[in-house]
Amino acid sequence: MALRHGVRRRIGAAIVAGMAVATATGTAGADTDPPNTVEAVFPQARPASDGSRIVGVTPVDTRRFVVEVRSAAMDRTVRLQVIRPADTDTPAPTLYLLDGAEDGDTPHGVKTWESTTDLIPFTADKHVNVVTVIDGAYTYYTDWLRDDPILGRNRWQTFLTEELPPVLDTAFGATGRNAIAGLSMSATSVLQLAESAPGLYRGVGSFSGCNDLDDQVCAAAVQAVLALGHGDPANMWGPVGGPEWTAHDPAAPENLEKLRGVDVVFAAGNGTPGKHDTAVAAGDPLRLGRELILGGGPEEALIAQSNHRVQQRMSDLRIPATFTFTAAGTHSWPYWQDDLHAAWPRFAAALDIPVSGSR
Q1: Which of 30, 65, 109, 222 is deepest in the core (most CB within 10 A)?
Q2: Cβ neighbours of residue 152 under 8 Å, at least 6 residues apart?
């Protein structure tokens, strides 16, 4: 099965590269093709001291690229989608976006923030570098205790907080200010990442995350995510309820303290059908019904309860945070697009840039 997984990832890489090249062909003429080498796109790029570095760039258009970064910790290449601001001469901050459990590059197809929301037009007038991680499905973007026979070597916390930022900051000529947001699985991950690297992120968005891992429902949800990817939960944080689970619980009081001073935005629906949950909006009535009954509705209701518990803990600790609970809404991408739109003014303030336009 490990071989099949490896083959699947290589096929996925080819698909993403093909998509990028096809898009570039359709949007740029022969005389205006965007540069396609690391040196041409990122002339300032330099390897990190540990050897992590940009090893490949595939243009999508003049502002968008699929970027391959070699991770020393994972001993493999990780693919990113990058959107540059219109003005690349003025240093800009960086917004990192993480996908959910079955998003990114998976057997279900390539589904990311770029392909599933209006991220590309939404950020067109914003002075920010946007980085989406294509890889990382089913991993919780964390450092695993042991290599997994199916999901391989996962040192995502090390990659995202130690290896990647200096590599991209140098390549981008960035300001060094960062924000990060995630949804569903990665809504928990972004809190853990911020807590593990105090000062790295000035803004954090946790959209539809089951975040108090000492709760049995949330712990079961984590195990269910790993089961979807055929990973062994014991290889990630050891036995459920053990010390590594406690250490990685973003809602543990000692971990929440590490978010003090960070502009954190939480968002969740209540599981009942909302403005996006119609046959017309979904385009597929059967799929809509399945999502509402089997996942999108009940799942989001439990997530809302988790967010209320976290809100109470942060209130008790007097740690400021913004919580938004919509009157209706399910566990689905259209609501996460809304969440990003709503959180953007706070992210912009944290990143010290205008809400729209260049400086």
Answers
A1: 65
A2: 2, 5, 74, 76
